[in-house]
Amino acid sequence: MVKTLLAHASPLRSGDVLAGLAATSQEQRVRARMTLADLPLKALLDEPLIPYEDDEVTRLICDSHDAHAFAPIAHLTVGGFRDWLLATNDIAHIAPGVTPEMASAVSKLMRVQDLILVASKIQVVTHFRSTLGLPNTLSTRLQPNHPTDDLRGIAASILDGLSLESGDACIGVNPASDSVSNVFDILRMIDDLRQRLNIPT
Questions:
Q1: What is the pTM of this model?
Q2: At the N or C end, where does the chain have fewer CB atoms within 10 A?
Q3: DSSP string, 4-41
């Protein structure tokens, strides 16, 4: 039930369509968001999207969940959590109590401006090939997907995105096929391009 509700509350995505979970209309999407807003956060703990016994990641999330950090927000619904995040400045202390499902659910009820405001309340600066998380700086992901996984098409999309100053956070791709060798080819091409052009991403 929760899995379907989260998928129905999402913007239209091909992955949800392929999985048979996508809403069939914009009205159904809006209704799902309204239902999601009233869902208690605890329900996302009580009903894992993938059964605990079937998935190592689910077990890790459940076993490492910090009930003490969750306590200040345990009484909230997903909609109430959205309002709390927007109204409260000190949110870092609850992070260990927020599961990926809770973060995903609340993000479905937020506008881009809401997400930026909430993200600005926690400073996490990381360094690798570039520095991310600096105040008043927005980093972006460049995701050059191609309907047939054509390497030249993906490369062209990368260059186009870089010309628009996108991709400093990361360059990623969602392959159209599930071929492992195809994924390797795409990743090698992206890394070769990054190294050849000395792209700091």
A1: 0.73
A2: N
A3: HHHHHHSPP-HHHHHTT-S-SSHHHHHHHHHHHHTSBH
